[in-house]
């Protein structure tokens, strides 16, 4: 027989344990799904491998989703929600609209996980796991992905307008990162994800990002841009041409995760203004430029920093309070909020 006082004690322990596991201060952990969905990692990996067979770009696209999720309201799957009446999705904001991609693959991952362990793995965690797998399958480092995020119930269109922009100068980039407790090393290391994936002509040949024809309103190209690379890009992206045409962010090894992003920058072949700023701006001297130099000369140093910086990024405002979050059944919708349900 358990006495009533020890029953009370057990109840107290359970309450404390519940608070620790699910309370607002809960920490993310590597083994969060070990007992509830032990195959989660392998399930995600298989869906990604299958998707990659018809879409070589998908690994790059998926890590970018994690970045754009974490930088807006923290890593809470806010980017994945579709627009509903009264709430416009982040995915339609200028940094994402016709640019962020891979959402159907996230849906496929979610469906596979719901089949294996329904209601267990959050969409925010799917993005974190998919980011790591994508880097590994592209030749980059692995790291221990911390898990246990819940999905939020809102998407923040306005917040996503403040995402780092390709025309941002170094000072602005540093501010946007430091506001999230991310350092110069994080900024330089995470920018190294531009070692794979694609970028549209509009980001190098138009408006505030025009480096080919009208840099900063000068009607001249960006003088920092390597002239042979400029000629190459001008062929692909003629003035007033089709802004949607795609280019490799890293033309040397377009789909491989390696340190070539930094070796490109060293020879003035960074694609975006925000890339070259890390090395060439006046403000970079003595701050980010030496970090670029270090990563350009040591892939091991880059990989070690990248792994740690991905963990740092994944720790931005983790949503772990079950009164504020949930595990979505469908990454595009808040639970119990199916279309039409509100109209009763
Ligand atoms: C530092 C500030 C950053 C800026 C200004 C920036 C900006 C951009 C832009 C403009 C594009 C091209 C979008 C398009 O043409 O549709 C892009 C692509 C990409 N970005 Fe960034 N980015 C930044 C940081 C990051 C970070 C931190 C990551 C991940 C850790 C990342 C990963 C990627 C990837 C992989 C692509 C290619 C995506 C694809 O092919 O679908 N970026 N970024
Ligand atoms: C997003 O892009 C589509 C075109 O693909 C456009 O019709 C739509 O208006 C854009 N959304 C916003 C909010 O700008
Ligand atoms: C960087 O951009 C911000 C915002 O546009 C601007 O206020 C600042 O003067 C710029 N800094 C430098 C060094 O160009
Ligand atoms: C940054 O760190 C401070 C101090 O630890 C903390 O109060 C704040 O919530 C953190 N901000 C983010 C976005 O993580
Ligand atoms: C170049 O950029 C400036 C500033 O944005 C703009 O006023 C000007 O019209 C542009 N020139 C051309 C030829 O498009
Ligand atoms: C612009 O380029 C995109 C991507 O290559 C293509 O899908 C689209 O059809 C092009 N649009 C025009 C008007 O040529």
UniProtKB/TrEMBL annotation:
The record marks 64 as: Transition state stabilizer. Ca(2+) 1 binds at residues 69, 72, 74, 76, 78, 90. It catalyses: 2 a phenolic donor + H2O2 = 2 a phenolic radical donor + 2 H2O. Heme b binds at residue 194. Binds 2 calcium ions per subunit. Ca(2+) 2 binds at residues 195, 250, 253, 258. Keywords: Calcium, Disulfide bond, Heme, Hydrogen peroxide, Iron, Metal-binding, Oxidoreductase, Peroxidase, Pyrrolidone carboxylic acid, Secreted, Signal. The active site is at 68 (proton acceptor). GO terms for cellular component: extracellular region. Residues 1-26 form the signal peptide. Pfam families: peroxidase (PF00141). One of its GO terms (molecular function) is metal ion binding. It is found in: Secreted. Its cofactor is Ca(2+); heme b. InterPro entries: Haem_peroxidase, Haem_peroxidase_sf, Peroxidase_pln, Peroxidases_heam-ligand_BS, Secretory_peroxidase. Disulfide bonds join 37-117, 70-75, 123-331, 201-237. Residues 27-335 form the Plant heme peroxidase family profile domain. Its EC number is 1.11.1.7. CDD domains: secretory_peroxidase (cd00693). It is an enzyme of class 1 (oxidoreductase). Substrate binds at residue 164. Belongs to the peroxidase family. Classical plant (class III) peroxidase subfamily. Removal of H(2)O(2), oxidation of toxic reductants, biosynthesis and degradation of lignin, suberization, auxin catabolism, response to environmental stresses such as wounding, pathogen attack and oxidative stress. This is Peroxidase. The lineage of its organism: Eukaryota, Viridiplantae, Streptophyta, Embryophyta, Tracheophyta.
